[in-house]
């Protein structure tokens, strides 16, 4: 619906004003929001995008291929590989 | 390919995961715990109408907001690491973890978008009752949102309610309620949340003690301490009891972890809990060196009581679990490795038969795989001794956690006693100790993480998937680079947290 009843419109307006005034009155909160946005930007736009691709999602195009690859990994145990034993 | 496995990569990936998780775990306990304390302060304000309680509530709410803002989303990096560094694992558990983690994401979003805003913006703008309700909902919701990640972690330690599908290479959920109501999951949730309440009480104690030592904000500090000390005392005693329950669960499903906690190499009846002792770091499970260096003191029978609820019961040691013990019907890692290798071989044969269109052979190999699949992970071990986690680290972390866990209730009792006598301000020694208790709490809770995660090595999923197979085939350099990026990012965030927090503490409640 493009418009609600007067009561609904009043409620939505009150909620909007509640958030708007709350954000406007923030002091320390503004700094914290800046930190949150900078952090999210670094995490998603830099780290995730450039350094943390989803290995199977980028290397294979179908789930069948991904499953086959993982099965292949599971069924070819290390040849000549020896994990350091506890204490060594 | 596994034959080209770069062990350095696995260790760097483990280090990166540890760095991320332990950093994340600096913020989480405080967020979970202090939300309850704030709810109590807010309730007292609403019931009494006393403005001092309002000032006090707003002050702690502000510190909560700082901690939440700096810590929020740091856990998402763990999900990045799953997809990049641990792709085999990530693929295999997708069916189990997908639902719980999606629920957590949706739940947290709606909670944060509604009740958080009302809690922070609602002073004099919504009714007192609704405002208080929102504060309580933040506490309830924050703690409930931790359920799912803890359920997922508990499942890795005790993988119930699943079946491995050899066609998709995935562990598929068979019984949702068995997973979420697993005793291991319940214990993990209860222990994590109650210890978080304890940590938050220590946080309040530390800052309030500092104010008392400085002679500032005396009324606020004293009131904060009384509520936090009662809350912290109850939480710390409860944490000790549910920690004991956790130890019992570990003894049932991860006996190797329990043996490593206690440096128990040779199983015994009436096994004692180590009260004092320095673990011998050079000791190996197959040699005859003494497990402890010099003097050590055991409390007779206590480990047996913790493990089996009986003083005279037998607690298996690492040697029993590695080499087997026929007398006590314990299967050793060596025997499990034989069965595990049969599972791996039959899995490979099954896939080949399926590809060749030989259904009869596929059925035969599948039947063999199903017979041995519970030992699948052991099929990837090269030596039985690989099933032993790092003993010295597990032992030291466990005992640091326990010693500090036993100290905290005494501190809370001391604070309550002198608060009731009205002489707390004169007890400079206690206030001095109080200012560092939050730091001790962080050490205890980080040690708890080490106990849980290092103690279960070499397993990503207990008995089914070792970390060496769970990883992605990447070069060491790739993981090293991102490790140091995280280290820099986390250090900057921690500096931001500490400086903003310190500034607000220095300002105190007047400026709210």
Task: Give the number of helices of chain B.
Answer: 18
Give the end-to-end Cα distance of chain A, rounded to a whole number of Å. Answer: 71 Å
Structural class of chain A: mainly alpha
The total count of strands of chain B amounts to 8
Number of domains as seen in the coordinates of chain A: 1
Instruction: Name the helicity range of chain A.
Output: 55-70%
What is the mean pLDDT of chain A? 78
How many domains of chain B, as an integer? 2
Main sheet record of chain A: none
Radius of gyration of chain A, taken over Cα atoms and rounded to an integer in Å: 26 Å
If you had to describe this structure to a student in words, what would you say it looks like?
The complex is a heterodimer of chains A (88) and B (512). Chain A is mostly helical and 88 residues long. Chain A has one domain (8-74). Chain A has helices spanning 6-24, 28-51, 55-59, 63-74. Chain B is globular. At the A-B interface, helix 1, helix 2, helix 3 and helix 4 of A face helix 2, helix 3, helix 4, helix 12 and helix 18 of B.
Features:
heterodimer, A: 88 residues, mainly alpha, 4 helices, 68% helix, B: 512 residues, 2 domains, two-stranded antiparallel ribbon, 8 strands, globular
Summed up:
Helix content of chain A is 68%, strand content 0%.
What does the secondary structure layout of this molecule look like, with pairings?
The complex is a heterodimer of chains A (88) and B (512).
Chain A: H1 6-24, H2 28-51, H3 55-59, H4 63-74
Chain B: H1 7-48, H2 51-71, H3 76-85, H4 87-121, H5 128-157, E1 162-165, E2 170-173, H6 176-180, H7 183-214, H8 218-253, H9 255-261, E3 268-269, E4 273-279, E5 292-299, H10 302-308, E6 314-315, H11 318-323, H12 333-356, H13 359-372, H14 391-421, H15 428-435, H16 437-454, E7 459-461, E8 465-466, H17 467-470, H18 476-507
Antiparallel strand pairs in B: 1-2, 3-6, 4-5, 7-8
């Amino acid at each position: 619906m493009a418009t609600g009843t007067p009561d609904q419109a009043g409620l939505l307006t009150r909620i909007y004003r509640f958030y708007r005034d709350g954000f406007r009155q923030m002091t320390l909160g503004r700094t914290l929001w800046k930190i949150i946005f900078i952090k999210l930007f670094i995490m998603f736009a830099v780290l995730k995008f450039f350094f943390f691709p989803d290995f199977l999602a980028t290397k294979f195009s179908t789930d069948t291929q991904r499953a086959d690859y993982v099965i292949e990994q599971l069924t070819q145990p290390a040849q000549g590989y020896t994990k350091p034993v506890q204490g060594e | 390919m596994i034959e080209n496995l770069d062990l350095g990569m696995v260790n760097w990936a483990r280090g990166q995961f540890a760095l991320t998780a332990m950093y994340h775990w600096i913020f989480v306990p405080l967020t979970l715990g202090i939300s309850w304390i704030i709810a109590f302060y807010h309730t007292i304000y609403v019931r009494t109408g006393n403005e001092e309680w309002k000032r006090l509530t707003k002050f702690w709410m502000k510190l909560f907001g700082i901690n939440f803002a700096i810590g929020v989303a740091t856990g998402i990096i763990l999900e990045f690491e799953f997809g990049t560094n641990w792709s085999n694992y990530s693929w295999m558990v997708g069916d189990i973890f997908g639902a719980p983690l999606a629920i957590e994401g949706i739940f947290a979003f709606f909670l944060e978008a509604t009740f958080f805003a009302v809690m922070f913006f609602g002073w004099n703008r919504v009714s007192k009752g609704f405002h208080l309700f929102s504060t309580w909902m933040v506490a309830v919701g924050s703690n409930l949102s931790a359920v799912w990640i803890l359920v997922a972690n508990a499942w890795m330690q005790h993988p119930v309610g699943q079946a491995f599908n050899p066609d998709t290479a995935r562990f598929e959920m068979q019984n949702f309620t068995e997973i979420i109501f697993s005793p291991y999951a319940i214990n993990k949730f209860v222990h994590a949340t109650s210890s978080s309440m304890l940590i938050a009480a220590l946080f309040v104690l530390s800052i309030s003690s500092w104010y008392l030592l400085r002679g500032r904000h005396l009324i606020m500090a004293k009131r904060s301490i009384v509520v936090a000390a009662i809350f912290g005392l109850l939480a710390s005693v409860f944490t000790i009891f549910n920690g004991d329950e956790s130890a019992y669960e570990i003894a049932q499903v991860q006996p190797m972890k329990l043996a490593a906690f206690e440096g128990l190499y040779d199983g015994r009846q009436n096994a004692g809990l180590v009260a004092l002792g320095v673990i011998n770091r050079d000791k190996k499970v197959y040699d005859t060196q003494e497990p402890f260096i010099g003097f050590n003191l055991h409390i007779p029978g206590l480990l047996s009581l913790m493990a089996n609820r009986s003083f005279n019961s037998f607690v298996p040691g690492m040697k029993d679990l590695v080499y087997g013990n026929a007398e006590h019907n314990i299967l050793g890692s060596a025997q499990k490795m034989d069965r595990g290798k049969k599972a791996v071989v039959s899995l490979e044969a099954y896939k080949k038969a399926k590809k060749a269109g030989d259904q009869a052979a596929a059925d035969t190999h599948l039947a063999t795989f199903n017979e041995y699949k519970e030992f699948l992970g052991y099929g990837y071990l090269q030596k039985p001794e690989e099933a032993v986690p790092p003993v010295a680290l597990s032992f030291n972390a466990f005992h640091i956690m326990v010693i500090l866990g036993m100290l905290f209730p005494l501190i809370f009792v001391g604070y309550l006693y002198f608060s009731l006598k009205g002489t707390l301000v004169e007890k400079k020694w206690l206030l001095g100790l109080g200012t560092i208790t939050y730091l001790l709490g962080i050490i205890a809770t980080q040690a708890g993480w080490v106990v849980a995660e290092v103690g279960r090595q070499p397993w990503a999923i207990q008995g089914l998937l070792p970390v060496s197979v769970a990883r992605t085939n990447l070069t060491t350099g790739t993981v090293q680079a991102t490790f140091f990026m995280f280290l820099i990012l986390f250090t900057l965030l921690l500096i931001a947290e500490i400086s903003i927090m310190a500034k607000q503490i220095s300002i105190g409640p007047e400026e709210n």
